[in-house]
Hints:
This protein is of the alpha/beta class. The chain is built from 13 helices and 6 strands.
Amino acid sequence: MKNRLIIIDGHAVLHRAFHALPALTAPGGQPTGAVYGFFKMIFRLWTDFSPDHFLVTLDASGPNFRHEKFVGYQAKRPKADKKLIDQIFLTKQILDQANVATSQKVGYEADDIIGTVVKKVKKKIPVLIVTGDKDLMQLVDNRVNLFLPRNGLSGGQIVDSRFVKKDLGIDPGQVIDYKGLVGDNSDNYPGALGIGPKIGVKLLNCFGNLEAIYNKLDQVEPLSVKEKLIRYRRDVFLSADLATICCRVPIRVNLSRYRVDQIDTDQLKSTFQTLGFRSLLVDLEKKAKQMNLF
Length: 294
């Protein structure tokens, strides 16, 4: 078994599963498609990467500190479907009952939990973060990679520093400044109006970071770009601040709590039987034997 910690961005994977898979229901009629897809992804990760540590991070309900900084943060996001919300709660219940490590904190996002855990453990153990959120590329280095699910949940892409450079045109350490310049429609923070990805990448490749760009505005060309940087300076730095993952969330980080061999597979088996997840029962038995959980 490889010495590796896999961290799941729980809401991101559940959201993807909810929209990628057909609607499923338990024998009692309860919607379960997202739950099924979530655990299907977990078993695939266990097969492909054989981690000995595993953690699921979740967003806490209610606003977080970014809403306090910017009232418009995520304001354009549609309200989550109640069927998805119910399955998020069900998944958390299943994880807790089976002693699968989870973490969430009121006032923070799952990204911040991930950043805090990564900062504290990556010198001890390599980390693979499973997410659909490219903001987490800012955490990538020689000890931390991302896994981006693709084709629904049937495939995925490993993201290392070289992939970030190829995909965005910048290094992981420049992702925050990139978000500051170009903004983010999904989270509704503005950036500099009129500065898109191409100009943002060009500026960062030329100057390195936001501080250098603004210290050398006299060197910025063309004039129209310089004028936009000056006009939207406040929005740029606000956006960079909002995009920055907080790595100081007040949570207890304990690697021993994340050990895979502490998972109660008998409880998972019982739950899958109740929900009618026949194929997951087969997957569970195979994966548990592979990982010496029985």
